[in-house]
């Protein structure tokens, strides 16, 4: 398949003031598009691997030919991560559903979950992602470097935040903690609940 950029499921300014429209537009039309273009370029001479969706490629990285494996890992990962990220963002969705009970049970309270998730995001050195994953049925917070995705480690992401500087620098400059605080205002808990229920 030729990988393509899907439109966002909302307007670029839909997450204002927490995540600004300019950041969303550049992030989607330039950064995400670039990962897709480079993934397609890497797969160009490997028709067998053009048949698979990006999650399949990332769960079978070891079977991807060595010369293109880093490109599939990085750009395929970039495509998968951003495709995952956009739909889990929405303003004013209350913390609710099965996932709210599971988070409270796993971390003690929503506030403790936020503390742990924020600490993981703030202390992640360099570029990467912080995730809430289902690992053998249990909820865990984890981080990945660069554009690695938890599926490559047999874990199922249900929530994630992009902590690359390009995700927040225009509005928050170097203040990653403020960006993570803002992120908690735009989590689409309905979508996360859906992902949680199908991951169990
Ligand atoms: Mn990004």
List the helices and strands and how they pair.
Blueprint: H1 21-43, H2 54-59, H3 69-85, H4 97-107, H5 110-123, E1 128-135, E2 138-145, E3 156-162, H6 169-172, H7 176-183, H8 189-199
Antiparallel strand pairs: 1-2, 1-3
Bound molecules: manganese (III) ion.
What do these coordinates show?
This protein is mostly helical and 200 residues long. The chain folds into two domains: 21-88, Fe,Mn superoxide dismutase (SOD) domain (Helix Hairpins, Orthogonal Bundle), CATH 1.10.287; 98-199, 3-Layer(bab) Sandwich (minor pseudopilin epsh fold). The chain contains eight helices and three strands. Helix 1 runs antiparallel to helix 3 (69-85) and helix 4 crosses helix 8. The radius of gyration is 17 Å and the shape is globular. The chain binds manganese (III) ion. Manganese (III) ion is lined by residues 27, 31, 82, 162, 164, 166-167.
Structure summary:
It is built from eight helices and three strands. It is mostly helical. Strands 2-1-3 form a three-stranded antiparallel beta sheet, with helices on both faces.
The helix tally amounts to 8
Percent of residues in helices: 40-55%
Helices and strands, in order, run as HHHHHEEEHHH
Separation, N- and C-terminal Cα atoms: 29 Å
| Structural class based on helices, strands and sheet pairing | mainly alpha
Instruction: Briefly note the CATH topology name of the largest domain.
Output: minor pseudopilin epsh fold
Average pLDDT score: 97
Number of distinct beta strands: 3
How is the biggest beta sheet arranged?
Answer: 3 strands, antiparallel
């Amino acid at each position: 398949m030729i990988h393509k950029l899907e439109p966002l499921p909302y307007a670029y300014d839909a997450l204002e003031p927490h995540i600004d429209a300019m950041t969303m537009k550049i992030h989607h039309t330039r950064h995400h598009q670039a990962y897709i273009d480079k993934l397609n370029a890497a797969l160009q001479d490997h028709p067998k691997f053009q048949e698979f969706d990006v999650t399949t490629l990332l769960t079978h990285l070891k079977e991807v030919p060595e010369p293109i494996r880093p490109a599939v890992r990085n750009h395929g990962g970039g495509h998968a991560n951003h495709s995952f990220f956009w739909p889990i963002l929405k303003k004013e969705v209350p913390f609710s559903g099965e996932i709210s009970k599971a988070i409270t049970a796993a971390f003690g309270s929503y506030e403790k979950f936020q503390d742990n998730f924020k600490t993981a995001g703030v202390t992640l050195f360099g570029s990467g992602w912080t995730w809430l994953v289902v690992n053998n049925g249990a909820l865990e917070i984890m981080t990945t470097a660069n554009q690695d995705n938890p599926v490559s480690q047999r874990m199922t992401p249900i929530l994630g935040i992009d902590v690359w500087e390009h995700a927040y620098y225009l509005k928050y400059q170097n203040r990653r903690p403020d960006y993570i605080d803002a992120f908690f205002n735009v989590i689409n808990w309905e979508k996360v609940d859906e992902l949680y229920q199908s991951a169990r």
